[in-house]
Amino acid sequence: MSTTGIGTFAIRPLDPLKDAELLHSWVTHPKAAYWMMQDATLPDVEREYMRIAAHEHHHAYLGLHEGRPAFLMEKYDPRYVELTGLYDPEPGDVGMHFLVAPTDRPIHGFTRAVITAVMDELFADPRTRRVVVEPDVSNKAVHALNEAVGFVPVREIDKPEKRALLSFCTRDQFLAARGVAV
Predict the structure, then answer these.
(1) Phi and psi (nearest 5°) for 82?
(2) How many angstroms separate the CA atoms of 149 and 130, rounded?
């Protein structure tokens, strides 16, 4: 659980069947274009998150704000998922994706609070030494958010579905970005 000036965030495991309808409305929304599921049907979403739930190295979570669903978080082991063969992973590397739910009433600073809660969750595990992300190179908004919480871009890489910006954030970089003495 993470508390910010915007409220309290909690993260729970995603239930691929119970949460599929909600997720479908999020991943097919125009604001989720970089999630690459714009044309997904409800069964497509169910299948994708059932696949993730069954995967040993990929996990999905539903993020709650004040007890209500507000974001999706995925964590993965980049040795086996997403980045296999695209960089040299180090012990303690954890891959991450996040998606904030679309809303008609945006809250200033909400997305930054979400990524901070996600990073808090990932670094709560003492085995996590570095978080790895690979957003689309054209997603300037997420690059700015990533940098705000301590990510450092390393290089562009070619994935099957996109050209991505490989970036890393260590625990110390995250704490420094939050203004916490390291």
Answers:
(1) 70, -50
(2) 13
Query: Half-sphere exposure of residue 38, counting CA atoms within 13 Å on the CB side?
Result: 6
Query: What is the C-alpha to C-alpha distance for residues 139 and 144, in angstroms, rounded to an integer?
Result: 9
Separation of alpha carbons 117 and 53, rounded Å = 22
Would the pTM count as exceeding 0.85? yes
110-154: per-residue pLDDT in tens? 999 999 999 999 999 999 999 999 999 999 999 999 999 999 999
CA distance 153 to 171: 15
Spatial separation of the C-alpha atoms in residues 16 and 94, rounded to whole Å? 22
**Whole-angstrom Cα distance, residue 117 to residue 63?**
9
CB neighbour list of residue 26: distance below 8 Å, 6 or more residues apart: 32, 72, 99, 101, 102
Q: What is the per-residue DSSP string for 106-161? A: --TTHHHHHHHHHHHHHHTSTT--EEEE--BTT-HHHHHHHHHTT-EEEEEEE-SS
Q: Indicate the residue type of 179.
A: G
Q: CB neighbours (10 Å) of residue 83?
A: 22
Q: What does the DSSP 8-state code read for residue 72?
A: E
Report which residue type is found at 144: A
